[in-house]
């Protein structure tokens, strides 16, 4: 009885370890066999997630081009994981790949630079699934895609990385209109197309999507709009951006209260907006202020590249790029950090947020 009580007290203490320091669990497991047994128990991972609720940003994927500087063009591509914590995937560099999107512990990859062969990868378990090629009557030139847990509306997404998933593919290459296709890992096949809004002139922005409730949001280029795909209803609709704003140099965000947001870089300032419900139930955009980038970044305004902006949903971290470097801005702490992406030119980032409890077998800490 006393031993069981001690285990409960120890578990309660260990559950309070910070989620953004996975190494602390490894260090705890080395104390003794009892501690290792507790943090290795099947229910500990679930309890750890429930305790902290919001998964930390373990790092981000930088989409890089690397090659011979003397060549006329660079033709080597890599999606490189840049850590923000002690977590390191087994394969930090995914060669000839571009990271498109990340939700619920999974990352969506495509063949670089613009191929539509898709793969879903879990960096924590290193499990990779190649998706069947989507049968289209033509080669898509304007498209984007996202990966999400399949249990929308029923899952709290705290520990669902081994559950079925969906990949939503938005194609804007057909003059008859936008088409949405959905891949189900349970069925192992793509759905029939769901028809949406008319095709745009300049196509879809290939930037990470936003997930709010049961809806995925895609940024559309130069049409002052966002495409909404409702996962539960399997319906498509279009939202309009704030008056005078366009989707160039922008990123979709989520606010602290879970609403859809929007941010755009203009010169040296990051402007923030949030969607709210109007008095008659209609959706409206409300300005949420702005951030002067020159002050925290300490760079010349001309060096800020307008279309280099990213956002870590849940962690509320912005990414802003210049010609020479990427910077992260934590909205909660105000911390600004220059990120080291290694060799190559980073032309986009995909933040990766997830809970992580280490595989203790790889450390020789398998409990008895």
Automatic annotation (TrEMBL):
InterPro entries: F-box-like_dom_sf (IPR036047), F-box_dom (IPR001810), Quino_amine_DH_bsu (IPR011044). SUPFAM superfamilies: F-box domain (SSF81383), YVTN repeat-like/Quinoprotein amine dehydrogenase (SSF50969). Residues 5-48 form the F-box domain. Gene3D superfamilies: 1.20.1280.50. Signal peptide: none annotated. SMART domains: FBOX. It holds the Pfam family F-box-like. This is F-box domain-containing protein. It comes from Panicum virgatum (Blackwell switchgrass).
């Amino acid at each position: 009885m006393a031993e069981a009580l001690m285990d409960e007290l120890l578990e309660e203490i260990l559950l309070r370890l910070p989620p953004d320091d996975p190494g602390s669990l490894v260090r705890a497991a080395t104390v003794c066999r009892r501690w290792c047994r507790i943090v290795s128990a099947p229910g500990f991972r679930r309890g750890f997630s429930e305790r902290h609720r919001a998964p930390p940003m373990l790092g981000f994927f930088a989409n890089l081009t690397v090659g011979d500087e003397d060549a006329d063009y660079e033709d080597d591509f890599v999606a490189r994981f840049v850590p923000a914590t002690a977590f390191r995937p087994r394969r930090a560099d995914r060669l000839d790949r571009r990271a498109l999107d990340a939700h619920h512990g999974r990352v969506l990859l495509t063949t670089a630079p613009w191929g539509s062969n898709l793969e879903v990868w879990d960096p924590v378990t290193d499990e990779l699934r190649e998706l069947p090629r989507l049968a289209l009557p033509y080669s898509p030139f304007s498209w984007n895609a996202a990966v999400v847990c399949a249990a929308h509306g029923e899952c709290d997404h705290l520990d669902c990385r081994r559950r079925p998933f969906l990949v939503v593919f938005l194609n804007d290459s057909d003059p008859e209109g936008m088409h949405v296709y959905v891949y189900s890992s349970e069925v192992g096949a793509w759905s029939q197309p769901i028809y949406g809004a008319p095709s745009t002139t300049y196509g879809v922005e290939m930037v990470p999507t936003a997930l709010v409730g049961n809806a995925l949001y895609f940024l559309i280029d130069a049409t002052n709009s966002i495409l909404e795909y409702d996962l539960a209803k399997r319906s498509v609709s279009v939202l309009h951006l704030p008056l005078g704003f366009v989707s160039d140099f922008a990123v979709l965000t989520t606010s602290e209260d879970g609403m859809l947001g929007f941010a755009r870089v203009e010169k040296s300032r990051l402007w923030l907006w949030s969607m709210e419900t109007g008095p008659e139930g209609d959706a409206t955009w409300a300005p949420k202020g702005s951030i002067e980038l020159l002050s925290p970044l300490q760079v010349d305004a001309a060096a800020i590249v307008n279309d280099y902006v990213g956002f870590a949903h849940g962690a509320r971290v912005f990414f802003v790029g210049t010609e020479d470097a990427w910077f992260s801005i934590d909205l909660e702490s105000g911390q600004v950090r220059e990120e080291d992406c290694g060799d190559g030119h980073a032309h986009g980032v995909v933040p990766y947020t997830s809970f992580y409890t280490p595989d203790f077998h790889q450390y020789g800490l398998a409990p008895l």
